[in-house]
Design a protein that fits this description.
Two copies of one chain form a homodimer. Chain A has helices at residues 12-24, 52-59, 66-74, 80-87, 117-122, 124-148, 163-175, 184-190, 200-205, 209-220, 233-244, 258-271, 287-292, 305-308, 397-414, and strands spanning 30-37, 47-48, 94-98, 103-104, 111-116, 153-155, 180-181, 225-227, 250-253, 278-281, 300-303, 318-326, 332-334, 349-355, 361-368, 377-380, 382-387, 390-391, 430-434. With 435 residues, chain A is α/β, with parallel strands linked by helices. The first copy, chain A, is globular and about 80 Å long.
Chain lengths: 435, 435
């Protein structure tokens, strides 16, 4: 599998901070960085952690190539001492945090990096890029899956976002419970189920809708999905049934009033004897549209734009903050920014999701320096992800996605039912710092 | 420079359509596809075309590798005949369209692909991903630059979006007039000006703010930018001036009421004799925040989240439609979808921006099959981008970005002044089809 060099997915200030701290000597101070979100996107009841596996995959390739070093030298971005440091760069510290697929709430310590300042500092942008993008998509996807109440959701938004974001979005959607994706690169990289049949252009290419349907059925079989709204939907359905017969797999509706259309198309299919032909709808759906289609006889939802743009919240707004480091006295000291409206909480965190007698989540408990003790029961939220520079293989690749999807299902099942409502509201459980 | 294989940035339906059309024979029909947006994002007065150069760069690497073909075979996504076709795939057609950096309006034919159906069909997702993402960012960036009225805007949003989107976003921002970016990979790939100094973590790493500033100045020089809001802003400014002296390059404000703060920090700097020390502000800015800071003594704007998420419009919603193809009779026929709310206009387009006597844009004229004639004057909007499979070198790499930025400046200068207002409104010029 092709691998990207990831080391320049970095903001320049990380390397200039590295340079200045190498000169002051502080670069080698042991340090603890924490990634967290100060708040959930407006109105959301919970967030979904995603991107963790991609961070681990990228970490393995986070090396500065000769070409990259030559660039940094030619542009005089850093000095020779820093270039020497980067030439040998290899993250050798520990990373722990929420397992991918886990839910998060305001101030949940989603990812903690422990290493020297230098090593942790250089990873900042790459870690945040993966977490912020993928968590935003997974958080939106999870609501769509909830709205669909068991009907399968298909990810098909690749064309609405950057081609690499599209791959990560497909991956994040599957973690949050989507059934399949149209994205082949994502299918290839992560072993995801892929789907796809035909677009309007295929119908328009042929001299008639019938010829197009015949061509598709001849090649893909009667079980295929025929797109019936290029010209007239009723005629499209009739032609589809005529061409494919009772074994026609599905029809796809991609325009118009979908609730109304799904109803009469279902009746028409039944009247024509196609009781097992399914109806897939795919036109600009989001979690609210999916919710409003629940009463209609729809068998699958194809979701595009709104999924890959996080349905109004395209980034998770996580930040990466130094929370503790060894000072001049040789001891770890908690540190925190005091700035107005952006204050942070210092100290190495541990997190437990407190549960009630029925196993429902009640509070996000965050301990500073020690494990918080839940009143009744609780589940530890932090797992080791990278140990002395070595990423846990189980979190990466196809296995990582499978585990994350399972984690997501289990964590969701712990939440109070209100979490799955589409109405805006506060975080469904409160975050409590325990010191 | 490292190159990505791009051929699997593809929705599965493109390959199943290819398979079905290879079987029906229609795959080899000459065809014309068009990328366009039915509307601008809500309230926007114009859009900015971006991504074109990246499409051309990606096209050079749009080949199916053996590993990719093995995947498609193993998953039985397509049949052997289709695999054989893909093994030799190389786009050999023509692409023309709006030069990158050009403005677009509803139905502007931004990109036109002419080739066989098979060749054009397979490119759909990759072309739309690049156009939709990059145009969304460039369109938002252009408004920010307008709001900044000549003060430099610095792109620093990498951490809020996917790591590869971040590179494309930096590139798109520079096309729309940003002065520099924090993203090193973008700097490397496209020869962009990069900037960056230090984060709060650098201050917190050291035992005091003074030690941190001393370390930064010792390494990066007195002309550096010191971040003064980790603890107390006034004390931060005083310490910064004390450490760096009158040559201090800039202070950065990243929290609080920026308008008020910029005013008193300016006075304080002046009182301390630091008349040439600049003020940079960087806290969650968007075009509206930039506008409201215009009366404040700010020298540069750092923009992050809102830039890379398109400031409320994270995708440009362009579509890619078959508009003409050779039919059974051997002649080109215009084709168009009739579906409710998603109708398209068939035919090969040409586009001219009509100008008035003073050289101001008045109408987007779109001719079907022939060049539309403007009443007074006009500028042809379409340029050849790819000829018989060979992309124009001038549109790619660093040269492509420079040309696109120049094109953008010139096109913006043609617009009526109202286009640069931040208020929501209709497209600033109307689109007119001429047949």
């Amino acid at each position: 599998m092709w691998q990207r060099p990831t080391a320049l997915f970095t903001d320049q200030y990380e390397l200039t901070m590295l340079q200045a701290s190498l000169k002051s000597g502080a670069a080698h101070r042991p340090a603890v960085f924490e990634a967290f979100a100060r708040r959930l996107p407006e109105g959301r009841r919970y967030g979904v952690v995603a991107g963790t596996g991609r961070i681990l995959e990228g970490l393995e390739h986070f090396r500065f190539t000769t070409e990259q070093l030559d660039y940094l030298a030619a542009e005089r971005i850093v000095d020779d001492i820093t270039l020497d440091y980067l030439r040998d760069f290899r993250f050798s510290g520990d990373i722990y945090g929420y397992a991918e697929g886990e839910l998060y709430f305001p101030h949940s310590p989603v990812l903690i990096v422990e290493s020297t300042f230098a090593e942790a500092c250089v990873l900042e942008t790459f870690i945040l890029s993966a977490l912020n993008h993928d968590s935003a998509i997974a958080s939106a996807a999870s609501r769509m899956v909830a709205a669909a109440h068991g009907r399968p959701c298909v990810e098909m938004g690749s064309r609405r976002t950057h081609e690499e974001s599209a791959v990560a979005a497909a991956r994040a959607a599957m973690i949050a419970g989507f059934a399949s994706t149209s994205n082949l690169e994502a299918g290839h990289r992560y072993g995801l189920t892929t789907v796809g049949t035909a677009a309007h252009s295929f119908t328009l290419l042929h001299d008639s809708e019938r010829e197009a349907f015949e061509a598709q059925v001849a090649s893909l079989g009667r079980g295929t999905t025929l797109l019936v709204d290029t010209y007239d939907v009723e005629q499209g359905v009739r032609t589809a049934v005529d061409v494919a017969g009772p074994e026609l797999g599905a029809v796809r509706l991609d325009s118009g009033d979908l609730v109304d259309q799904a109803r009469w198309v279902r009746r028409l299919l039944d009247d024509l004897g196609n009781h097992s032909t399914r109806i897939m709808v795919t036109s600009d759906l989001d979690e609210h549209a999916i919710g409003s289609l629940q009463s209609a006889p729809v068998d699958a939802y194809g979701v595009g734009t709104s999924l890959v743009t996080g349905s109004g919240a395209p980034t998770a707004s996580m930040v990466y903050k130094l929370v503790s480091r060894v000072g001049a006295n040789g001891e770890y000291e908690d540190v925190a920014k005091a700035a107005t409206n952006k204050a942070s909480v210092g100290g190495r965190k541990q997190a437990v999701r407190a549960l009630n007698e029925r196993g429902r989540a009640t509070t996000e408990l965050i301990g500073i320096g020690e494990r918080p003790t839940p009143a009744i029961a609780g589940r530890d939220l932090m797992v080791p992800l990278v140990e002395q520079g070595t990423p846990g293989a189980e979190y990466m690749g196809a296995e990582g996605v499978r585990r994350a999807a399972a984690r997501h299902r289990e964590s969701i099942s712990e939440l109070p039912g209100i979490a799955r409502k589409m109405q805006k509201g506060e975080a469904v459980i409160e975050t409590e710092f325990v010191t």
